[in-house]
Each structure stands twice: as C-alpha cells, then as structure tokens.
Protein 1
Amino acid sequence: MGFDPTKDKAIEEQLVKDLQAGKVSSFEQLANLYQKNIYTLSFNLTRNATDSQDVTQEVLLTLFKKGHTFQGKSAFSSWVYRITLNASYMKLRTRKKEPNLSIEDLLPSLNGAGFQQEKLQDWSENTEAAFFDKETRRVIQKAVDLLPDKEKVVFLLRDVEGLSTEKVSEVLEITIPAIKSRLHRARLFLRKKLASYFEDYKTRKERK
Amino acid sequence: MICCKECLELLHDYIEGELSAEVHASFEDHFEDCPPCIVFLNTYKAAIHMSQTTLKSNDIPDIVKERLKKFIDKNKAE
Ligand SMILES: [Zn+2]
C-alpha cells in the first residue's frame, strides 16, 4: 500500500492537522501512508537498499519533527517528495553532470522534409512474454539508470509515482513545458534502449 | 499533411490528449498514411508501460520492512 495522490487528499488533510496539533499517533500514520512511496522513489534513484532504508527513516523523522512547520503553500505530498529527493541525492555522492539529451538522437532517421525513411520493427506485440523474463527486467532497470538525472526524476515522479504534470512541476519547481519536454525525452530514451533489446529478442530466444 | 518529425516531437501531447482538436485530427490523418509512425507510437507506449510496471514493482524488501517497523515502534513510543 502506498500513497495515491489522486485519491488520498482527505487522508492527507487530516494527517497534516494531526501533525500540526502535535499528535503522536500521526508518526505511525505517516509511515503507513508514505513509506512505500519514499522507499521506492529513493531506491529507483540510488539502487541501494541500505541507502533507501536510511532515506526512508530520515524522511519520516523529518516529517514528524517538522510537520508542524508545514505551511501548506504546496501539497503535503509534494513536500514529502521534495524531502525524499534531497535525501536521496545526498546519498549519491557524485551526481553526474550530463549533457542534455538531444531529441534528434532519440528519433528515427528522418529525411530533409522530416519524414521517416526506414521501416521500423513493431516489437510492442512481443513484450507480454518477455515481461516475466529476468533479463528484460534487468535491461529496463539499466535503461532507467542510464537516464540523465534531470529526465530520470521527471520520469519517476510522473510515470512511476503517477503524479500529475502540475504536481511534478510543484515538487521540482520547474515549469510545466519543461516537465513535458523532459518527460518526452525520457520516454524516447527508454523506447530507444528497449527497441535495441526487443528488435532481436525473438531471434535470440529462438536460437537458444 | 504534417511530417513525421512534427508528429514524433509532439507525441507526448498527443497521447496525453493535450493537442487542440484541429492538430489532433491532423495527427490521426498522418497515422493513417504512415505505418512507421504507428510503429513508433506503439513502441513508445510499450516502453512507457514496461518501464512503469517494472519500476513500480520495486517494493520494500521484507528485511527492510522489519527494520522500518522497529524504527517506527521506537519513535512512536518516544
Ligand atoms: Zn510519419
């Protein structure tokens, strides 16, 4: 069970009230409501169970101890995500400085008029069987790990955590058009990585 | 007719339903005449779906769950 930002608004409001009133029971409530979201987001960024456990404990304590100072300028869950991101980044001692993903590198080859030249293989239909394959999971995890930080965090919040574009913009404090273009680049990047894996998935399996 | 480049660059807005009715219609026209863009759209969606599902399934391991529970009980008591 985790926090579903689209549904749990009322629960969140009550919790914030309890925190502001200094109710002790709210610590357990906080943990029940957010620990999965905190842990998963942190793990998807750090890929380290110990680090993610530390981050989860740290974030829960911060929320509990500083919850009464929460101003309500943004949604409480946005605050939770922001603290989680900061704590996770602290664990990643070296944050790589990557160049921006260039959209041209992520699109298929186009002619001068902007039309596709080559025939693309539609591997989307043979993904069902591959889904339960350990190797597929590994390839996907690795593709996500390879995303530059800027695109990765947008992909994790929007497509994995399921936040709205507006909410992601609130958490990261960047504009909505910037969120959209980062998300699109992240998705194009993942598509490209998965394409090179799936395009010869069938032949590889048949050979085995 | 819009070209593939325009179509692929705005794929995010297309699948999120954020295009104006007019532009959306021109996308539908393009897809009708352009099998490669349909393939691209299908694989774009498949990549999102697969990555999403895989990453969502990264649940808290049982051992970490236990440690977190101890941590919560300890802080609850204080
Ligand atoms: Zn096309």
Protein 2
Amino acid sequence: MKNLYPLSLLALALAANGTTARAQDLAFVACPIVQDTPSVPCWLTEYEGELYYMGVQSDVSAPFNPPWLGHMALVEGTPSATGERICGGLVLDPVRVAVMPEMSPECDERLVAEPGYVLPFEPRRPPGPSSGRLAFSPPQPPPPPEPPFEPRTFPVYFPFEGAVNFQTPGALGEILDYARAVGAERIEVTGYRAAVLLTDGTVLEERSGLAELRAGQVARMFEGLVDSVEEIDVVFDEAAEPGDWQDRRVDVRVIP
Amino acid sequence: MTVKPRLSHLLLGVAVTSFGWQAVTAQSTDEAAAAIAADAGDLPNGGTAWWEPGEGRPIPEAIEYDNDHGRLRLYNVDGEVVTEGHPFFEPLGPNGRACVSCHQPADGMSLSLRSIRERWEETGGSDPIFAPIDGANCPNLPQGEEASHTLLLERGLFRIGLPWPPRDPWGEGTIEPEFTLEVVRDPGGCNTDPEYGLDSANPTVSVYRRPRMVANLPYVVHRNFGIGPFVGKTGEPALRDPENGEPVNMNLMADARVPTLGTQASDAAANHLQLLRGLSRAERAQITDMQGQLFAAQVYDNVAGDLLAGPGGNAFGPENLAHGDIGFLGNNTTRWVFPVADEWAEPQPGLTEEQNERRASIWRGQQIFHFRTFWISDSMHLNTVGLGNPVKRTCATCHGMHMTGLDTANGWMDIGTTNLPWAREVPLNPWTDEEELMPLFRVTCRDDVPPHPFLGRVIYTQDPGRALISGRCNDVGTIVMQQFRAFAARAPYFSNGSAANIREVIDFYDRRYNIQYSEQEKTDLENFLATL
C-alpha cells in the first residue's frame, strides 16, 4: 500500500492525548477531508499535524457515515496501534463521527485521486448502482420474547447534537417488536443530552433543550403504532456531564 | 383506495425472479410479449389531439401519440376505458374543466407547454385550463389577457395555493413553522394580494408548479422497498392512508402533501375543478381504478425507430412497465433502474446504419445514467442520509426505482431547482429586458433550530416545496421528483418548469454538480432520456 502522507507527526499526536480517559483515544473537532480514489472516496481528517483515516463512502446501512464538507466534525476514535494507514491516514478504529450543526465554509478540502493509489480492500459498495443488497446487513432480529414479560429498557443513541434522523427508525424496530409481543401498556421515554471532553481539555456540551427534543420526537414516533399502549410518558434530563457517545441517547422503557 | 399490483403483475413477478429480467424481452412468450409484438402500425394513432372534457370518446386498450422525439403509447391493462360519464373525463365542476384538461393523453397524461400555448391560440384564452382559480397568476387578474397568465403560458405552471402556517396533518389546527416567510418578489401579485395573499384573511402562499403524469401510478404509490411507518430520510412519522391507517410512501405531488390517490383526487376536484360538493366515494374509486391500470411510455424514436425491436429493450414501452416489478430499488445485477441489455445496442439486422448508431447512443446514455460518477454535494436529504457530503455517485443514486427512476423511499430532496443560488433566475443586467416570472421568498430559520446544513439561516427560494407542508427549515426547496417517463411528450421539466427541454435538464446538472460531461455524453444521455 502506498502512503499519501509521511508518518512524521504520529508521535506528537499520541503524546497529546494523555488528557482523555483512555490513553490512546482521541476526541477532537476538525474539518473533514475527502480523498478521491479510482473507486469510492476516503474520508480523512487532520489533528495536531497527523492525518487520520475515518472510513470510506458506502451506503445508508454502513456503521460509518461520512461527515460533510462545509461542516466541522466531532471525531472520537482510537488510532491504530499497529500504525495501519489507509489513503495516507492513520486508521482510527473504532471511530465515531458527528457533523457539527453550524456551517464551516472553510472545511472544503477535496484531494484528487493519487494516481496509482488503490484501496487496500474491496469497498462494500461501488460508486455506481449496488449489486442488489445493502453494503451491511442489519443484525438478526432477536428471538420473540417469552413470558413472563418484564419491563425492559432500550437505549436509542444519537450523534452529537443530533435528534431523530434517518437511523432512528432502524433503532426502534426491536423496541416496537418487543412492545407488540408483550402487549405493552405503557412506554416511558427518557431523553438525555451530554458533553464530551476533548483531547485538548475543552468540554463541548450539546445544546440545551436537546434532551427534551430527543424524548419528544422519539415518543411521537411510537404514537399509534402499538395498539395496546395507553400511555406514553416523556421525561428528560438536561444535565450534560462529560461522558462518551453512550450518554447521547434516549431510553425507551417498555412496560407490559 | 390504493393501487395494488394486479394478479397478472404478481404472476409475472414470479417469472421474473426465477429467470432473471432477461426473460421479459420482446421475444418472450407471455402476454406482455404478445402485446409488445403488436405491430405499432396496427394501433390507433391519436396524433397530438387534444382531449376536451366530456367529449365521450373511449380510450382504446392501446393508443399512440406523436411527439418531437417519436411516439408515446398509452396502455390500459384492463382494456378500453369508457370515458363517457367517467369522473376523470367529465367536467364535474363549474369551471368546465375535467381532470383530463390538465392530464392529456398526448402529453403523457401531463400537460406540455406546447399544448397550453396551442389552446391559448385556438380558444383566445377561453379554454377552461386558463380558469382564474389557478390558470392565472392570481384569480383576480383581468381574464383573457396574456399578462394575467404568464406563468402558465411561459412556463406551463399552475398556481398552487397552500395555507400558511401549514395545517397539522396529525390533528386540528396548524403547526408552528421553524421559519418565517417573507415575500421578496411577487410578479404574479398573488402572494401580496389583500384577498389571496399571505396577509389575507386566509393566509395563503402561492407557488407555481407543473402538472405531473397520471400514468404508471402503481410505481408512484408502491408500498414495497423502503416504505414503513417512518420517513426513511428523516425518521419522522410517515403519513397514513385514511382508509386503513397504513403508512404511505409519500411520493405524490411536489411536496407529498396528500397521502393517497384517493385523497389526491378529492383535493384536485376541490381545487382545480372547484367542485364544491366533493367527489363521491364511487367517483373516487372510478378515478383510482383507472389510475391503477394505465401505463405510458415511448415506443418509437424518430431516429432509432421501434424501441421494442430486437432483444433486451426491457426499459421501453408501457407493456414492460405494466408488467414490471413495482417498488424495487434498481441495482446492477437483477434489476437495473432502466434495463437495456447489451444485445439491444448491437447492430440489428434490418435496421439502417443511422438507426443502429442511435441505438448505440441510447444505450451509452443508459450506461452514463447508471455508471458515470460525479460529486453530488450540498443536496438536502441525499447527502444527509449517511452518504456524506459530497458523495461520489451517479444519476441512479437519487433516481433509483426500477423502471421509473423515482426515489423508492419517501422522496423529497433539494437539488437546487427552486433554491438560490442554483435556481434559474433571470440575470439582472442592462442587456436584457426579460422579467423574472417566479415569486421569490425569504425564509429565515428560527434561532432555536439548527440552521439548514447547506444554506444557513436565511434562504431565498422560488418554492419552499415540502417546507410549506412540514414547516421545517431543512425541507426548504425540497421537491418530490417525478417519474422518468414520457419526457418527450411533456416539456418543460422540473416542478417549476425551469428546464425548457431535456438538454437544459442535463446542463442544469452539469453546472450544479460540476460534472464536466463531454458533448458526446450529453448527447447520449439526452437521446436515452427521450426514449423513456
């Protein structure tokens, strides 16, 4: 594999992240960079002089959804311990990327295809039409629940600053199945918002009111979908403690 | 009521899955092939004839109409349609219009600008299509004067008056929009009119839109791939069919404001026909029954000749549409968006060199549509659904539905046809005295909602599209695409008629996404689109 960028500043980047909980994790806000290839483009970003690889373009089913030029991205990821590079960027894996809502016109870097560069793997989805299936199959649905039916809580996660979006319906499927199977009488929706401690020590907080918005939007999605439900309660907690992606969520409690 | 694929389609669907799509060619043995094989010369040709409301002649099972690029065929799966007494064809309301007034057989069941102009000339502006309610820039303008009908006469646009703020589709009352709406320019005068405008007793926004095809509708209202209780692109709850509570796919009209063909028909009767009593249940059913079995597509190209000649032209003609798989996402193995086999493009014996060359060009155009990548950027509800901005993809990415190029899922998107800076606007300069026809609105998003991701908090638009229904900032200028059929019969294109011909559509995309098509690529793509 051919590197597009020298490895030079890796040491520096690793030294800088001593401030996060886990020594090797990074959390930063930076412009995304799109790097073309003869196949699908790579998505990169630069932090403290190092170029990082986040993923490639694929389709809606992919766990990695590329960010947007014109916006900064919040990147939370673990740099490859083996120094693996794709498209010249040090691989972040796992990685979570969220698009920052405000516009950042300065994020407009498009790198043309490096002649001769070939992705080290076959992309799951070519840039043209698909071969008839999604790039990533959804997880197998769990077996139908059996009595006695217990109240169960399901988390629904959101990207930083995000509310209900194209991914939410997928996350609700399992909850709806459970609620229908157990003939749920009540659904309790609790919204949260969170903050994130960046590698440079800054705390970035989601906007206030987001916990309420998330809970309200999710509750509305259940309306009229489960015949047995008599009540949908909506609560929210606007405290925004620094934490990780699992704190940006709504809990849906299904009560038989 | 909703349209379900008929039994014959379902049976054919089985055949298609077991033999692959190559099975359904002009040479295969089933009923589709029998109909296709009918020599074009045997079918009645309606020329470019205008249908008067209430004229009562039946529409045969199959009939063809001439247009600039070739010939369109309408195909009624259930056989001849008796139009006498039929609510789609009779002038039910006081203004003399029928549905057929604006959905003309020769124009692919839409209405071309050419037909509109011809009607103006032939009737001195008295044809019911020019009725003041929506056939004029504003109802209170002096009738019979061209100046009162410029949007219809120059761009083929009818006025659509929508309540502002939007009605709550889930309950009583209105919803609180995420933005304020101001009128910046109003050449038609209706948005600022004290009786009809935004500040009137019934605050109304007037936007101006093209009619849409009333054929191949089972594809438009399918409930197959991607359709569920939520809108796939945003997660919001999908509209429901009032008859049975089932979620619908929300691909009707430029803004998906009506859930079903039945509610659409009632809406059209009240607004276009000014039918105060409303449609009866039986009338509605008669209309939707007809809509469920009527298919339309080109069958003949002026240069290439019979599009159904030779093997593998499965994309062409209404019979292939009638018997196609409805509501499937196209792909590159089993169901192309527009299946045209390689063999179709090989020189066919019995055709002239010119005909064979044009077939090769049409095939290349089909390949460009499917495979020629470019950077799709800043397009709301496409770049925002997990693909990234920009995404390197093709025309088929957005126009993905097998046989129609519709969006398979609930589909409104902003490609810049109505939002500035991409919308067509008359340039302000001393060398032109052309005046802009379209209204211009300023949308200002509230501070407590996130800005529009690509246009910010202040957006200028000729038609806020879906946002006039949803009240959402992110929906400003999003438009539900139309099916890729009968293009040759129904120019101009886009919901605001801003592309006068197919080449202007291609040029719009070339500019919008910096595609850098070669001249040859543009020609091939144009030749291909003209055959659908």
